[in-house]
Amino acid sequence: MRSGRQARILVAIAAGAALLASAAPAAAAVKPSVGVYSAEPKRLVTGYQEGLFALVRDGTKRRIVAYEGVAGIFYPDAGKCDGESIPLTAASIPVSAKGRFGLRDRTEARKGSLLVVWKGAWTKPRRVEGTVRIKYGKCDSKFDWVGKRTKPAIRP
């Protein structure tokens, strides 16, 4: 038989564990809305390149692809490491059931290769946020970005 003090300690530990379990946010799955998205750095800077991509449904799965009539998938770029608009070499990027994606893409450029690490997650059906890291030569740029579903100005 336990003493009263041991019983109180066990009850306090169980209550604390229950409190921690209820306080931990559950990773809620957001079903991204299919359509065309534009993306830009979260903190606006002059000379940035807008990201432009489409989200399509392929059966029960979703994936990011190039918008029809555009040369490829364009990620948002703050313009610190490269002065050119270079699309990703990937033809599509899978999006998880929880509305998340990640890609590491290397593109050959004039002076070596451009490395893009692009990650994101839908926070609402028509809103996506994430980070982009771009390495080109000695330049290394990382920034937060935000995107939303839009009606594209570019018409094929």
Q: What does this protein structure show overall?
A:
The chain contains one helix and eight strands. The protein has 156 residues and is mainly beta. It has one domain (28-150): Lipocalin (Beta Barrel), CATH 2.40.128. The protein has an eight-stranded antiparallel β-sheet with strand order 4-3-2-1-8-7-6-5, with no helix packed on it. A hairpin with a 2-residue loop joins strand 2 (51-58) and strand 3. The radius of gyration is 22 Å and the shape is globular.
Secondary-structure blueprint:
Blueprint: H1 4-23, E1 35-41, E2 51-58, E3 61-65, E4 92-95, E5 100-109, E6 112-124, E7 127-136, E8 139-150
Antiparallel strand pairs: 1-2, 1-8, 2-3, 3-4, 5-6, 6-7, 7-8
Descriptors for this entry?
156 residues, mainly beta, Lipocalin, eight-stranded antiparallel β-sheet, 44% strand
Largest sheet geometry: 8 strands, antiparallel
Q: Give the strand content.
A: 35-45%
What is the averaged pLDDT score?
Answer: 84
In sequence order, what are the helices and strands, one letter per element?
HEEEEEEEE
Form type: globular
Number of helices: 1
Termini distance? Answer: 78 Å
Low-confidence stretches: 19-26
Helix proportion of residues, in percent?
10-25%
